[in-house]
């Protein structure tokens, strides 16, 4: 046996663009931000809207990086890579406050942000990234209106949202709105190619194309599948079509059966069964990610596209109850999963997260 390298490759970091030049599929937004960088003048209230996994937070963090990096090459649009801002990117940049409004919904939080916004930044700007801003209460959103209308000169507010229509109109109208596009399979392919280049991993383009179309639009899942392929091939195995398909279905290393069973119980509107299944789940984030993937596949089926859905789910979809529930799967489940995933990132216990998932889904059967 050959000895294996002990250094782990951080696949999540392969997804993260270090510079504006590496952002895939959002040329309209990137072009506007580059314009701001070139002029050295940033819009002070920006709204980034777009669906799950379209890269809102990533772009918000890049805006923060470019607004405060001390030495940007304005021709190549490269940040210096050496200053405290570049070193802290993406999560520990000074003067950058990331707030998840799905968790910190109240008006007190909003007021405390407004107070913080008056403090002078260490670099050019103090930046507030408000994730899922539509989840903040109307009262909290109203409290933010004043700084959105007249932001202090050295302050940037970036509002990220999956549902811009749920943000109060008076707040929305004060922002420069950039609507991010869904990532196409073609863009997903580009992201995979870039990841392979960074990994120095040679694999047939047809494999990457297969992955890109299999995860339609969710780069995170594409990369999770690539990680599986990478480990499989690097340990000396030959990749076959069926293995690749299994990896696509089971990406993320989550116990796929649990999630599939839960999804079936949802389609059958069986609450008792759903609760029994989730009571055994510890990894809420992994579970949600898989449910999110299944949802995406079901949506694809309904819109007449190629999808990779386990056979039992395909069969269940033909029943009348399932058809009713599928309407909510189409319209509401992605946003719900997105919100609950945010909770897991803020260390809300798995039990509470999954209870909420079950209780919302139960209301659909009525
Ligand atoms: Zn820098």
DSSP strand count: 5
Overall, the morphology is globular
Helix/strand-derived class? alpha/beta
Q: Secondary-structure element sequence? A: HHEHHEHEHHEHEHHHHHHHHHHH
CATH architecture of the largest domain: 3-Layer(aba) Sandwich
List segments where confidence is low: pLDDT < 50 over at least 5 consecutive residues: 1-8
**Radius of gyration from CA coordinates:** 22 Å
Question: What portion of the residues fall into strands of 2 or more residues?
Answer: 5-15%
Q: Would you identify the CATH H-level superfamily of the largest domain?
A: P-loop containing nucleotide triphosphate hydrolases
State the CATH topology of the largest domain. Answer: Rossmann fold
Strand ordering within the main sheet:
2-3-4-1-5
Keywords:
single chain; 366 residues; alpha/beta; Rossmann fold; 3 domains; 5-stranded parallel beta sheet; 5 strands; disordered N terminus; binds zinc ion
Summarize the structure in words.
The structure is a single chain. This protein is an alpha/beta fold and 366 residues long. The protein has 3 domains: 26-179, 3-Layer(aba) Sandwich (Rossmann fold), CATH 3.40.50.300; 185-250; 256-365. Helices cover 53% and strands 7% of the residues. It contains 19 helices and 5 strands. Strands 2-3-4-1-5 form a 5-stranded parallel sheet, with helices on one face. The model is unreliable at 1-8 (pLDDT under 50). The structure holds zinc ion. The site of zinc ion has 8 residues, from helix 4.
